[in-house]
Amino acid sequence: MAKSRKVSRPRSTTRSRKTKKKSSNLSIFFVVCVVLVLLGAFKQNREASSELKRNIETSLQALSEQDMTLPTSGYSLEILSPAGIKLDDQKINKMLRNTGDRAGMFTYQGGGVGTYTSSAQATDHRQHLVNTFLEGFQPFEVENVMMPLYVLAKRKSYEYDNIQYAGRPDVWQSSRQAFFYPRGDCEDHAIVLADWLIEMGEDARVATGLLDGGGHAWVILFKNGKEFLLEATQKYGLSRNKAYPLAALHREYNPQYMFNREYFWENTGSKFTTSYSGKNWQKKSRLSYKPEIVN
Fold this sequence. Notes:
This protein is of the alpha+beta class. It has helices spanning 14-64, 89-97, 147-155, 161-164, 175-180, 186-199; strands spanning 75-79, 86-87, 105-109, 115-121, 127-129, 157-158, 183-184, 203-211, 214-223, 226-230, 253-259, 263-267, 281-289. It has a single domain (66-289), classed as C8orf32 fold (Roll).
């Protein structure tokens, strides 16, 4: 009896074509989805950039109509010592005039506490207490604490004082001036950044000291039990949501003093510290403003 032979039938190509067509359709669908997402993100970023530009222009317009000179009266300074010494605005102005209104940052000692405050020359050629440069200014509301530095990187460029002010070696801008003027150096950037963050309800302070052996100013942000160091003059590597670096990672910054709108601190410990709180940071003075009388 002859053996039956198995006859192999040719494979059907119909299923293969269907599979390839389905795979091709999925690929097209995926590409279309990616393109739509990218277009949506591009549109969102463009709208956000347009809104940011409008907010900046609105703030600049409002500032152009204001008197941005710093006050020379209406405040007092309490030296935080057992003696409880308090200086009114007349005594403060007399103390400041003793500098001859020369350019630069000056410190003041006495009251049994050593250095208790500092002053700097403003654009008006007069010396002012460093706290007064923080005016309670916020250009506009933003959604997170990363935005102010991002905005400043877009708005303000770095410029040395002796170039911007025709040979004057050290001139400080107030927070309003620092946002209004398109150029400034480290303390100008730090002042407007700290003031903006404070107005948002954050604990931010301007720190002054040394960076790579030269005088410098930066911002320290205290948030959620941590200390963050904000290099206010940074122009690259920023985004609207990029987290700030921890202060402990930056040993190249050597702080001597800190201040906000109200208080002045001195670092009485090592200049190489990366901590901006603790017993080495002594609170030396408090600036108070007289309440405005409304008729």
